[in-house]
Amino acid sequence: MLLVCGFTVPDPESSEFSALATRAIELLTAQRGCVRAVLGRSADSPTQWSLTVEFTDVVAYRRAMSPFEVREHVIPFLSRGEASAYEILATATDGQAEQRVSVVAADAATIRPSDAAGPASPRT
């Protein structure tokens, strides 16, 4: 699971933003199931920042967002930007790609979460 966030940060606010982002990634990477977090700043447009956090799975992502300190600091921080969570469907290392089967049901966009029983047939 990937959490990808984009931020527009005016130059005068970059030091404060960097400190808040660093605290956010410290809190997230301290959670079980959080693989790593990467904070980046655009080389072409210095007001554009990105934060990418990788989790082992959806459950780890949801649990990582639950502790009080995360809800107190990370969630308000993420609300400053545009955040989306993505299911990882392929990875590659050393020129070798590995495909993953989706754990999201094919009808996930048409039913309410409370009605879901599990992915009888995964999204393709």
From TrEMBL:
Q: Which domain of life is it from?
A: Bacteria
Q: What is this protein called?
A: Quinol monooxygenase YgiN
Entry-linked Pfam families: ABM
Which keywords belong to this entry? Monooxygenase, Oxidoreductase
Q: Does the keyword Chloroplast apply?
A: no
Q: Which organism is this protein's natural source?
A: Kibdelosporangium banguiense
> Which residues belong to any copy of the ABM domain?
7-63
Q: Which GO terms describe its molecular function?
A: monooxygenase activity
- Is Oxidoreductase included in the keywords of this UniProt record? yes
